[in-house]
Design a protein that fits this description.
With about 350 residues, the protein is α/β, with parallel strands linked by helices. It contains 13 helices and 13 strands. It has a domain at about 5-185 and about 220-245: NAD(P)-binding Rossmann-like Domain (Rossmann fold, 3-Layer(aba) Sandwich). The structure holds nicotinamide-adenine-dinucleotide (NAD) and thymidine-5'-diphosphate (TYD).
């Protein structure tokens, strides 16, 4: 593993991953391949460009564009593809699933074909705990559980996982898949709940909690997730899946209280609103397998939420232009007419 193509590397997890691998190996050369959708931002990679110039190159392109993908793989002599590129927000997938099917399913297929056509390149797919669907009772999802996605986003990601697995079985493509819990940290587009609530709180706007706020998520720090993916690339078994999370989930209301406390903002900002359609109640990963590979998270969910809140508090330069731009239309579409619920 020397010449890595990181698709979706201008997005939230991708940009953190690029910095992580360049910092952790002096031999690696990275090509970021990204379409630069609303979620992909070149400024996310400014520090990488400055710190690692000769070992980093950015190519703007769509993963659905087979010719451009293959041209890039050839020109950069790529030996490993790590696929972060995706449409990623559940609420957007409810509004309009089209781009999710195109990028998350067809785009993954294009990358798999490129890997196959260039002599079976190493391929890692970044997937999500959402493919298991929501989990009842005290159960945790294990890697061999059946897939039961319930949103257009998770259905697209689950389909991609099935293709990745099929390419391993059919063509012997050396693949691995990681299924991550909710990531938080620097450079996450402020549509996702933690950066949305932190930036709303910093602007003294209400925090729109869907339904009763008792849904459960495992909020893991993005650097921990990046470390796990790097470890899987180095030591993961080909053809295997790995869940990645802290293994400790909390309710959305607990998450909100932690971030408000960290920012020293009042609980009166919490506003319960009409629930998301098909809202998954609980995700919960069994992480025994990734722990056995030698990975351990540095952050608890509470530490991750606090660190994230501080980063947004201290980096207004990054998120203010986003919130002042196209994001406003999106926010109005999703939230303006949303019914308010009585205090719970
Ligand atoms: P993100 O939305 O912040 O970034 C996605 C990136 O993909 C952007 O840079 C975007 O420009 C790029 N992209 C989108 N469509 C593209 C296309 N057709 N061609 C090329 N590039 C394209 O997403 P993220 O949160 O960084 O998530 C990265 C990956 O991790 C996704 O595959 C996601 O499903 C997975 N994941 C995310 C989380 C999470 O909590 N954010 C958790 C588990 C797994
Ligand atoms: P989100 O960040 O969209 O991730 P997920 O893909 O896990 O749904 O949302 C995390 C949780 O926060 C989820 O239970 C939905 C909830 N949520 C709200 O309550 N209000 C919001 O405005 C958003 C965006 C999410």
């Amino acid at each position: 593993m020397q010449n890595i193509l990181v698709t979706g590397g201008a997005g939230f997890i991708g940009c953190n991953f690029v910095r992580y691998i360049l910092e952790h190996s002096a031999d690696i050369v990275v090509t970021v391949y990204d379409k630069l959708t609303y979620a992909g931002r070149l400024e996310n990679l400014d520090a990488v460009k400055e710190g690692f110039g000769p070992r980093y190159l950015f190519v703007q392109g769509d993963i659905c564009d087979a010719a451009k993908v293959e041209e890039t793989v050839a020109a950069r002599n790529v030996d490993t593809i790590v696929n972060f590129a995706a449409e990623t927000h559940v609420d957007r997938s409810i509004l309009d699933p089209d781009a999710f099917v195109k990028t998350d399913v067809y785009g993954t297929y294009v990358l798999l074909e490129a890997a196959r056509n260039f002599g079976n390149l190493r391929f890692h797919q970044v997937s999500t705990d959402e493919v298991y669907g929501h989990i009842e009772g005290r159960r945790r999802s294990v890697e061999h559980d059946a897939l039961a996605p319930r949103s257009p986003y998770s259905a697209s990601k689950a389909s991609a996982d099935l293709f990745v697995n099929a390419y391993n079985i059919t063509y012997d493509l050396p693949v691995t898949i990681s299924r991550g819990a909710n990531n938080i940290g620097p450079f996450q587009y402020p549509e996702k709940v933690v950066p949305l609530f932190v930036t709303n709180a910093l602007e003294s706007m209400p925090l729109p909690v869907f339904g009763d706020g008792m849904q459960m998520r495992d909020y893991q720090y993005v650097a921990d997730h990046c470390a796990a993916i790097y470890l899987i690339l180095l030591r993961g078994r080909i053809g295997e899946l790995y869940n990645v999370g802290t293994g400790a989930e909390m309710t959305n209301l607990s998450m909100v209280e932690i971030l408000l406390d960290e920012l020293d903002r009042p609980r009166s900002l919490i506003q319960h609103v009409e629930d998301r359609l098909g809202h998954d109640r609980r995700y919960s990963l069994d992480v025994t397998k990734i722990l056995a590979l030698g990975w351990e998270p540095d952050y608890t969910p509470e530490e991750a939420i606090r660190a994230t809140a501080r980063w947004y508090r201290d980096n207004r330069w990054w998120w203010q232009p986003i919130r002042d731009g196209d994001f406003r239309d999106y926010y109005d579409t999703v939230y303006a007419d949303r019914k308010r619920l009585e205090p719970q």
